[in-house]
Each structure stands twice: as structure tokens, then as C-alpha cells.
Design brief:
Elements (H helix, E strand, L loop, with lengths): L1 E2 L2 E4 L3 H12 L4 E5 L6 H5 L5 E2 L8 E2 H12 L5 E4 L3 E6 L5 E5 L4 E4 L1 E4 L5 E4 L29 E5 L3 H10 L5 E5 L9 H12 L4 E3 L3 E6 L6 E6 L2 E6 L2 E4 L3 E4 L10 E2 L2 E3 L13 E3 L4 E2 L7 H19 L10 H4 L8 H12 L1
Parallel strand pairs: 1-9, 2-3, 2-10, 3-6, 10-22, 12-13, 12-18, 13-14, 21-23
Antiparallel strand pairs: 4-5, 7-8, 8-9, 11-19, 15-16, 16-17, 20-21
């Protein structure tokens, strides 16, 4: 039996940052994740994808962000159970929890934080009859290694952030990048839309809207795509077709834990601490839902911070928590007690 304070389910950016916030409060963490390495979707699906909304970083690669988070939490020595799925959670008489994985690993903790992102996931595929015949033969649902597209002709389909971001990124790598979207309006960030339009004006990106890709042709690999635009059909040659229509999320075993679910997400109390309907079980990051929810990494960081403070107060009833800034107390001296806070302030003044 592995013993810890907080059992974190999900090793994505929100789960990893929760380890840091818990460490500041002297709370130990153990992370369970179904993937063989930390990082969640960022490491598995988008390691080279640029991220533009992390405070202090105008742009940072998804993989680099995970590396930085791992370096940040190393000092707190979290435990990891990787390549295993959390299948059951049992609340004990003393209000603690035991989480068991599909391989029989048991983790005993005083609180559970579900940070599973979108849960288990698979790409949403376009309705093209023979698309399965070309998967990994020119049809790619994820961009894991951008260098494979160097000096190639690329067609991207989609209208969200991923489609826009990869169009921008690959315009400096590929010989030719074409973005196809079924509407004239895009769902992604306005800044990204502006960048794509500017790249079109510069001749670095082909933009075809409103249009849809309706067929794939090629002898053993993708060679041509049929595009339908305003009732007319035409073909363009390409080496790769990258449909980016998002992911279809599934909660997996978590859906059977007695948690309140709404539209495949876990309902939480966002007015306080992101706790679920089961006291002691929290949900943070993309896996939760509440009025006004935004699925952004920085929002997950905020939720992780409040969750950790709630766990601290739950485990230390009557012990007054004093918020301190790490610039004053440092990392080692941060434990939330008034006495240590006063010492830190005096030391800073001296």
C-alpha cells in the first residue's frame, strides 16, 4: 500500500502543478496516470505544439512546459504510478481514500484530486468513407513530430485552436500549407486567426473556406484530396492530410465513482474549492465543469492552488492558514503557519 496525503489522478500540467502547490504546504502527493510518461495530452499528442497563454512565456512548447513543471516539483519528491488506470476509489471510515488501479496497485491518501484532463480520448474523425485506409499513410490526427512534415505539402482541416496553431507553426516548415474549414468564421483565438490571415496575404498559407474535404485518393498513400466548396468539387495534391476536429472524451472508470456528472465532466463547487459531491474528492482542470468554466491550462493552475489549500484546511482543522508569497518565504519555509510567516517577514526586513 502506497501512503500519501493527496492522490492525484492525471499527470498533465494541472496535476503536476498541484504537486508544487501541495509541496508548499508540506503535503505529499502520489500521481496515477494511464500514460507511460508524465505530461498527459501535451506529452502524448502535442509535444511540439506552441502554447501562447502561459503567464511569462510569450510562447512555450508543450513538451518544454511539461519538462519545466517536472523540474519545479522534483524538490517535493512526488510518487508516480504510470501506465496504470485508476479503476476504483473507496472512502474509508476515517474519511481517507484507497484508489486501486487496473494492475492492483493501491494508494492510500487523505484526499483525491482528479486532474484527468479530458479523460481517455480519441480523435474526432471526418466522415470520409475510406479514411481508415490512409491512416498512418498520410492521414495524421496528431502532430507529434513536426519535422516529418518538412518540405512536404500539408492540408489541415478544422477551425479551432489546434488547426490554427499548427497552420501557423508548420508554415515555417512545410513546402505548402493549406487550411480548409467548413465556415468562414473560426472558433480559435482571435490573435491566431489574424496570424493565419496575415500568412495568407504573405502567400505562406492557402486558406479555403467555406469548404469540406469529401474524399481521399492515392495509391497506398495520400496523394489527392477532394474538396467541395459552395457546391463545386475540385482536387488538390498533398503529402499529408491532418484533420484536427478535436477529441472525443470519455471519463472511463471515473464515471462509476458516484460523482455528479454533467456532459461528460465532473461537477464541482467552484465558489469554494473545486470539491465534488463527495467530500474529500476534488476535480481540477479540464475534467471538471461549473458555471463559466474555461478549459485553459492557467485556469487549471488556479483550481489546483485552491484545491491544495482546501485539503490543508481539511487535514488541519483549527490551524490558521496564513498566505505567504514565495518571494518572501521561499519554497522551503512555506507551510502556512502564522509563526513561520512572522519569521519570514522579520527575516525579509532584516
Amino acid at each position: 500500500m502506497i501512503e500519501t496525503d493527496i492522490i492525484i489522478i492525471g499527470a498533465g500540467p494541472t496535476g503536476l502543478f498541484a504537486v508544487f502547490e501541495a509541496g508548499l504546504l508540506k503535503l505529499r502527493c502520489h500521481i496515477i496516470d494511464a500514460l507511460p510518461q508524465p505530461g498527459g495530452q501535451l506529452a502524448e499528442l502535442y509535444p511540439k505544439k506552441p502554447i501562447f497563454d502561459i503567464p511569462g512565456f510569450p510562447s512555450i512548447g508543450a513538451g518544454e512546459l511539461i519538462d519545466n513543471l517536472m523540474e519545479q516539483i522534483k524538490q517535493f519528491e512526488p510518487g508516480f504510478t504510470l501506465n496504470e488506470i485508476a479503476t476504483t476509489v473507496e472512502k474509508q471510515e476515517d474519511e481517507t481514500f484507497i484508489v486501486t488501479t487496473n494492475r492492483g496497485t493501491k494508494v492510500h491518501g487523505k484526499a483525491v484530486a482528479i486532474a484527468g484532463g479530458l479523460g481517455s480520448f480519441e480523435p474526432r474523425k471526418p466522415l470520409i468513407d475510406n479514411i481508415a485506409d490512409y491512416e498512418e499513410k498520410g492521414v495524421e490526427y496528431f502532430v507529434r513530430q513536426p519535422e516529418m512534415f518538412r518540405d512536404k505539402k500539408i492540408v489541415i482541416a478544422g477551425g479551432g485552436d489546434s488547426a490554427l496553431d499548427w497552420t501557423i507553426f508548420l508554415s515555417d516548415i512545410a513546402e505548402e500549407v493549406t487550411l480548409v474549414h467548413r465556415r468562414n468564421e473560426f472558433r480559435g483565438a482571435l490573435d491566431s486567426v489574424d496570424k493565419v490571415i496575415e500568412l495568407k496575404k504573405l502567400g505562406k498559407v492557402n486558406l479555403i473556406t467555406p469548404a469540406e474535404i469529401t474524399a481521399i485518393q492515392g495509391d497506398g498513400k495520400v496523394e489527392k484530396l477532394e474538396i467541395e466548396k459552395e457546391g463545386e468539387k475540385f482536387y488538390i495534391e498533398t503529402d499529408y492530410f491532418i484533420p484536427l476536429f478535436g477529441l472525443s472524451p470519455k471519463l472511463g472508470p471515473i464515471a462509476n465513482w458516484g460523482l455528479e456528472i454533467e456532459k461528460n465532466a465532473i461537477k464541482v463547487n467552484n465558489a469554494l474549492d473545486y470539491q465534488t459531491n463527495i467530500e474529500g474528492i476534488y476535480a481540477i482542470g479540464d475534467i471538471n465543469t461549473y458555471p463559466g468554466k474555461l478549459k485553459l491550462i492557467l485556469c487549471g493552475f488556479h483550481e489546483a492552488t485552491l484545491m491544495c489549500q482546501s485539503v490543508y484546511n481539511r487535514l488541519n482543522p483549527g490551524k490558521k492558514f496564513i498566505l505567504k508569497y514565495t518571494t518572501v518565504a521561499g519554497v522551503d519555509g512555506f507551510d502556512g503557519t502564522r509563526k513561520e510567516a512572522e519569521k519570514a517577514v522579520v527575516k525579509a526586513i532584516e
